[in-house]
Every structure is written in C-alpha cells, then in structure tokens.
Amino acid sequence: MQLSLTQPCRWMSLLLLISSLLPWEHVISTPDDQMFNEELYNKLISISHRTHIVARKMYKNLDVKLSKGRWFKNSGNNTCRTASIPTTKKTEVLLKVVINVSNAWKYPLKLLTPAVLTHLGSYDGMLARAIEVKYGCEAILEGAKVLLSRVQPGFEENNYPDWPELKQLRSSNKDTHLSAFHTLFYCLYKDIQKVNRYLKILRRRVIKN
C-alpha cells in the first residue's frame, strides 16, 4: 500500500523518529571546526562507511525485488552524472571530489526520501535507509568543507548535475519510477563508495605526516 504525501504530520513524525536513531548521533557532538584533522577524518570515514553499507543495501534489495519482474532488464549500463575520477591525487583535489560528489546528492536526496515514502512505502526499511543516507551525505559534505578550508580557502562547489531520473520519480507509471529508483540507488552507493575510498587515502597521509 502506498502512502500519501498529503499526511504532513505523519511524515514529519517519521523523519524526527528515524533521525533521532541515527547510528552516528554520538559522533557529531563536537563541531567539525574544533576537531584536529585526523579526528575529523576518522569521523567522516566512520560515517561514509556506514552510509555506503546502507546505500548498497538499498540498491541490492531493490535490484533483487525488480529482477523478479519480467519487465525489468538490468543492463548494467547505469549512467551516473557525478564527478569523474581525478587525474591527480593531491589532497585538495581529492577533497574537492568528496565535496562535489556529496553536494551533487544534496538536492536529489531531498526528493528521494519522500519519493521512497510514496512509491515504496515500508518495503524492507527503505524509508529509514533513505533518511540515514541523506543525513550521512550532509555530514560528510560539511566535514569535508572544513578540511578543505584548512588547505585551500575560498573553494566554490559545483552546481547540481541534472538528474532526469528525479522527474521520473514523480511518474505514476510503476515501470518508470522503479527504473529511476534503480539508477539513483546504484549511483548513490557507488558515489559514497568513492567518497569513502578517498577519505581513507587522505587519512593515511595525515597519519604518515
């Protein structure tokens, strides 16, 4: 049964309840700008690791669900519109990739969460996972901004990329919006995996120095 977005009280109650149960709530008590670099990297890696696991579970579970339908064909050719792999691995370049990738998901995740509620309902805890990923990406973005400001102040984030799948999420056609979910979930988990990998590289540099 699908839930309607015309139930604002119920929707906000769900948001407040789930956000209060986020697994890294205890980690974010100290402001990012008051942490040493190594401490902040450890925090962001912990969040990105957890967020990647949740995003991967969202994608894998939906993939299994859709693969049971005859209409669905997983071609494996999902096209993601976020930052490409950098040709150099300078600290400031990797931090910019982390920021731009996280920033690219800021707007989509705002739309993805209510879309999950509308079309997927309570299926396999998808709503809770979508909210957790949203908070995780926001925390990574803010922490990475602090780290970059210490090595290169004045950086401007990239504009949001155009995701045609966001319009498809509003479609009443089941095939259309489920296909859009599949692409977005895939790109989301791959991008967070990339972010987690770059943060680990950067933390090793801090420890080495």
Walk me through this protein's architecture.
This protein has helices spanning 8-19, 37-67, 91-104, 106-119, 126-149, 164-168, 174-208. It has one domain: Growth Hormone, Chain: A (Up-down Bundle). It is elongated, with a radius of gyration of 18 Å. By secondary structure, it is mostly helical. The termini are far apart.
Tell me the number of helical segments per DSSP (H or I, 4 or more residues long): 7
Span of the ends, CA to CA? 55 Å
Mean pLDDT: 82
Number of E-type strands: 0
Task: Please write the CATH class name.
Answer: Mainly Alpha
Report the β-strand fraction as a percent range: under 5%
Based on the structure given, which CATH architecture is correct? Up-down Bundle
Largest sheet: none
Q: How helix-rich are the residues, as a percent range?
A: 55-70%
Low-confidence segments, ≥5 residues, pLDDT <50? 1-9
Radius of gyration: 18 Å
Principal-axes geometry comes out as elongated
Q: What's the structural domain tally?
A: 1
Structure class: mainly alpha
User: The CATH topology, please?
Assistant: Growth Hormone, Chain: A
What is the chain-wise order of helices and strands?
HHHHHHH
Protein name: Prolactin family 3, subfamily c, member 1
InterPro entries: 4_helix_cytokine-like_core (IPR009079), Somatotropin/Prolactin (IPR001400)
Organism: Peromyscus maniculatus bairdii
Family: Belongs to the somatotropin/prolactin family.
Write the layout of secondary structure elements.
Blueprint: H1 8-19, H2 37-67, H3 91-104, H4 106-119, H5 126-149, H6 164-168, H7 174-208
Helix pairs in contact: 2-5, 2-7, 3-5, 3-7, 4-5
